[in-house]
Amino acid sequence: MPPVIDKEKCIGCGACEEICPGDLMEIDEHENKAFCRANRDCWDCMACVKECPNGAIETRIPYQLGYYPAKLIPKKREKEIEWTIIDINANVEKLIVETRNK
Ligand code: SF4
Ligand code: SF4
User: Which GO terms describe its molecular function (predicted)?
Assistant: First the structure.
């Protein structure tokens, strides 16, 4: 599922454009907001979601894994990522995963 960008939160920093391994993210020149230029090519790696400093990007979990409003929300810190996992019944669980790049 392609990334969904919250235009209110996007500050046009370009971090998502730089990190996307598929070169799919772009900054709209007029609005200075990010968008995915090829939704069908996105493979949900979530690199852009993790990299966004403003929490402006979400990926929707494919229906085979969990119906809306199931969500995975990463929050990147210097040495770890905190994952908030919300299931289809709105149960919330948090996981801390250490990053390898220390
Ligand atoms: S989820 Fe991955 S492939 Fe999809 S736009 Fe973001 S960085 Fe690119
Ligand atoms: S990383 Fe976030 S704030 Fe920066 S351009 Fe992308 S969506 Fe906007």
Answer: 4 iron, 4 sulfur cluster binding; electron transfer activity; iron ion binding
CA distance 99 to 23: 23
Distance (Å, rounded) from C-alpha 39 to C-alpha 90? 27
The reported pLDDT for the residue numbered 26 is: 97
Residue from 6, 13, 25 to probe ligand 2 pocket by mutation (most atoms less than 8 Å from CB): 13
CA distances for 90 relative to 66, 70, 85, 87, 101, angstroms: 11, 7, 9, 5, 32
Active site residue 43: yes
**Separation CA 52–CA 9 (nearest Å):** 10
